[in-house]
Amino acid sequence: MDFSENKGKNTVYEKVKRIMERYPEARDNYAYLDFQFYPSNISLSDFFIGLSEGNYSSIESVHRARRMVEEDFPHLRGKTYEKRHIKQHQVCESINLTPIDTIESL
Q1: Better-predicted residue by pLDDT, 41 or 95
Q2: 98 vs 33, 40, 49, 87, CA distance in Å?
Q3: 13 close to 65: Cβ distance less than 8 angstroms
Q4: I want to staple 101 with a disulfide (CB 3.0 to 4.6 A). Which of 24, 29, 77, 97 is the partner?
Q5: Would you say 53 and 86 are in contact if contact means Cβ atoms under 8 Å apart?
Q6: How do the domains of the chain map onto residue ranges?
């Protein structure tokens, strides 16, 4: 799903953005984001049946939307965002890569 072209009012991207604005806990916690995103008035088994039948947005799409929101709206980044990126740079340095290197460029 290309979120850059689908940032309308009722998209996964916009719903995730609204959740992140309203619930700061959702910025650092995928489980909390999922809890706020999906319906809570149905049984767990009904939820998973609906998810498998495509009645709900995939969990991967919700998580991808969160990363896009973080990219587009830095003020909505969680507290662990910076920690993850510092760690990324440390790992890249330890294996002699720059963060922009890819497998294909090696």
Answers
A1: 41
A2: 31, 43, 43, 13
A3: yes
A4: 97
A5: no
A6: 3-94
